[in-house]
Amino acid sequence: MTQRVHLHAALKTTALTAPLKDGSLSSDQLKLDFTEIEPIHRAFAPMVREAAFDLSELAIVTALQAVAFKRPVLLLPVVVASRFQRGCLISYRPHGEMKPEQLRGKRVGVRSYTQTTGMWVRAHLVEDYGLATPNIRWITHDPAHVEQYQDPPFVEHPAHARSLLEMLHDGDIDAAIFGNDLPQGDDYVPLIADAKARDLAWAQQHGFVPINHVVAVSADICAREPAAVRAAYALLAQAEQQQPAPDAGPRKTLCGFEALQAPLAWIIDACVEQALLPRKLSVDEVLGPAHALLHGTQPSRAGTRSADAAPTKS
User: Hey, which residues does 73 pair with through a beta bridge?
Assistant: First the structure.
C-alpha cells in the first residue's frame, strides 16, 4: 500500500473545511495536517513570504499580489469565504451623521490598506457614489502580507499605536472599515444606508458574493507532490459541492475555473483602480498555473462548473 503524503495546511474551521478536519472527507493519497491559527489572517504573511504551509487559506487581495510579485505560491480555484461588505463602513454617532457622499477628502481608517474588506468597501464607494479611491485619506497601521508591495501615496501611517476604535472615538478618523471585529452598539452607524438590500441586489446582478478568502498551495509542494495537490483539490471541490444552496442570492463558496472567471476579472479591475496591484493581471495569469497542474492545459472561458470542479485522480 502506498504511504499517504502529508500536507501541512492552514484553513479556518467552517462548514466547508470541517469535513476535511474531522476526516468525514479523506483521501488514500494524502493526509492534511492542520495547524489552527486564529485569526486566520495571521497565516497569510508566512504563506506568501516563506511558504510556511503546503496549503493555506489566503485573502483574495493577498493572493493576487502574490501572483503579481511572483511569490512561490499557486492559487487554486476554490473560494472558502465570501460575505457582504457594505455594512462594514462605520461612523461614530456622537460626532454627527455622515453619508458616503461626504467622504471626499475625509479620513477613513482600516487595519491594512490591502485588507480585503477594505478593497470591497472602496470598490462599492467607486461604483455607488463615484468616489475615486485616491480622493479619500486612508489611515492604516498594518503593512501588506506581500512584502514587495508598498502602499500608495494617499495612504497614511500614523506613528501612534491606537486602535481603529480609539481613533474613531477621538475623532482622528471620520469613519472606519471593520471586518470580523465590527463594533456593536447604537453609537456605531453604517454609512451606507440599506446596506443589506444593496448587497443582495449587487450579488444578484453580478452573480457572486464579494470574495474574501481563497486557497493557495506552495510552488514547492506542487513540484514535489503534484498528485497530492490534485487530491487535496478534489477534497476541497467535494466539500464545496456539499454546501447547501443559500436561501437568497449566490453561493458564498465557489469551486472551479469557470466559476471564478468573472469574479476574478471584476476584482482585478477594482484592485487596479485602488493601486493594489503593480499592473493589471489577466485571469489566465492567475488561474493558468493551477489549471496546468490539475488538468494539464490552460483554462478555457467556455468550460463548465461541473467539469472544472473535481479533477480526475492520478
Answer: 218
Number of domains in the chain: 2
**Residue 314 belongs to some domain of the structure:** no
Dihedrals φ, ψ of 158, to 5°?
-65, 150
pLDDT tens per residue, range 100-122: 999 999 999 999 999 999 999 99
Q: Where in the sequence is the domain holding 182, given as residue range(s)?
A: 86-204
Q: Are residues 167 and 118 in the same domain?
A: yes
Q: Which three cell numbers stand for residue 236?
A: 476541497
pTM here? 0.93
Q: Strands, DSSP E only, in the chain?
A: 5-10, 30-34, 55-59, 73-82, 89-92, 107-110, 137-139, 155-156, 175-177, 188-190, 211-218, 254-255
Q: Which of 151, 175, 204 is the last residue of a domain?
A: 204
Cell reading at 73: 505560491
Q: What is the pLDDT of residues 250-265, one digit of tens each?
A: 999 999 999 999 999 9
